[in-house]
Fold this sequence. Notes:
The protein is of the alpha+beta class. It is built from 4 helices and 5 strands. It has a single domain, classed as HIT family, subunit A (2-Layer Sandwich), CATH 3.30.428.
Amino acid sequence: MQWLSLAVSDCRFCGLVKGTETASVIHQDKDCLAMMDLFPISPGHLLIVPTRHVERFDELTLEELDALSRMTHKLSAAVMLTQLKAKQRPDGYNILNNNGTVAQQHLPHLHIHIIPRYKRDLLKVTGHLFLHAPGLFIAKARRKRLDEQAQLLGSSLAGL
């Protein structure tokens, strides 16, 4: 897939941070925005983005790195506490970050994926990852379900 060369004003994640685009938001503060992924690899798949537009991990300031790391840590704990799939908590999770086109970064705004994992999900997740990597996003989730998951994760996060 060709690199999406968007101006910051056209960046979807920047639009979400500014509130001009909609998302199923879990948490937002001055440093980070956490939201549900529109094309989840598994139930509860979420994204964390810095509020300042940066394309790659190495472009973060140390303060931004600290805030993003802390939010990733808290949300990974919230994921493990939350029943996201048929009254079932995840059994684990993957944390993923792609930097640059050769690493399959499809949007030029740094984002971290937390992908909850469940027992016996290897075949399904592998299939989704195989299609997700080249940008073949087929299974768009329903907004209502994403909003429900965002609310559940937000409640778990608030309890930490």
